[in-house]
Amino acid sequence: MIRVVIAEDQGLVLGALAALLDMEDDIEVAATATDGQDALERILEIEPDVVLTDIEMPGMTGLEILQVLKEKKFAGRVIIVTTFGRSGYLRRALEGGAAGYLLKDAPADELAEAVRRVHQGLRAVAPELAAQAWGDPDPLTDRERQVLKLAGEGLSNSKIAGELHLSEGTVRNYLSEAIGKLGAANRTEAARLARKQGWL
Amino acid sequence: MIRVVIAEDQGLVLGALAALLDMEDDIEVAATATDGQDALERILEIEPDVVLTDIEMPGMTGLEILQVLKEKKFAGRVIIVTTFGRSGYLRRALEGGAAGYLLKDAPADELAEAVRRVHQGLRAVAPELAAQAWGDPDPLTDRERQVLKLAGEGLSNSKIAGELHLSEGTVRNYLSEAIGKLGAANRTEAARLARKQGWL
DNA sequence: GATCTCGGATGACATTCGTCATGCGGCCGA
DNA sequence: TCGGCCGCATGACGAATGTCATCCGAGATC
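^ inputs. structure came back:
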């Protein structure tokens, strides 16, 4: 019996995924959670064989959970299930030690199959992503990413400077760098492009 | 037996929802579709009692399907199931004759319940939305909306002016108006706020 | 110790944005 | 037919943004 914990913030989808997996004879859904913190607690408490988690969740993202589990030398395996195949996410997931990475638009029967593969020690990466995986690496530095992220939310340079404890001029420099690297015309377009690649 | 057709572009979620509903004794999933066009054909062919559809889908959105079904005097009832409670969407859905509007973060057992309610001729609107439904109507004029949308994608004023055949100064005026109405500090924040409300 | 590199900071400059007052021609209702 | 809006435009002005050259100090590298 493969014991699974599922973390997914959309209740309907969570319930549905659980229903789907519970139909399998060799898989048991041991617990579910709708936010990151909660998920982490359940996982550490239950020590399931496989963890299934979304990336975008309130409290703590799937990638952060992955990070923590790695530090705690968690013995089970983790599958990331998410909406979009952003190469940035995929790379971070694999670097973080994820055993699988599925897209939500995969056919439904791939899910149970992936759980089994992963439980056997194999990897399960959505085929349409495997190739693109190491495509174009994120050209942004940490600072540029931070600055761009805030700028993309509409903060002014001075607000950003305050937030990151930098001078306003420095913020301008990083932003200018980022805009150049992404071939954008301004901060807004730059943020949009970076977001599309999963770099934010 | 309530016959249901489900339209949802994310295969995994689609399969899972189907599994969830198929567990109910009085509900039968008659067909599923992963894009709007296909969904519409299935619905017209099968004439189910209830249609369950996402909003964002390739080919045709759930709201467009709703529109067409209304024109064709479709006898069944439609439930919109979507990710976020944007009041703009909700209003358009209800105006379009939707019988239900659920959020994906609702608890899973609400789904079957909603299907039954709707089949009996009742409405099923996620309670946390019902109040807000007619809350704040979109304060933006058509022009403001168009301009804001493009600005949010990173276009400069002059690009926007070219796109919409307006003068650059006029674009600035509309944008300034929109920023003011939304209480934002700049175009980027304004676009973000408007998007969050489903006004874009 | 001399030299490089790197994160961070300045200052100056041109451009773009955001705001506001104002002008003009339709079009609608009184 | 006369106001009064409304959509669109202008012009002007200050503030925010984008670009560059340059500088400084702390580690690395040699």
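The domain at 142-197 of chain A is CATH 1.10.10.10 (Arc Repressor Mutant, subunit A). Chain A has two domains: 2-134, 142-197.
thumbs up if we can close this ticket
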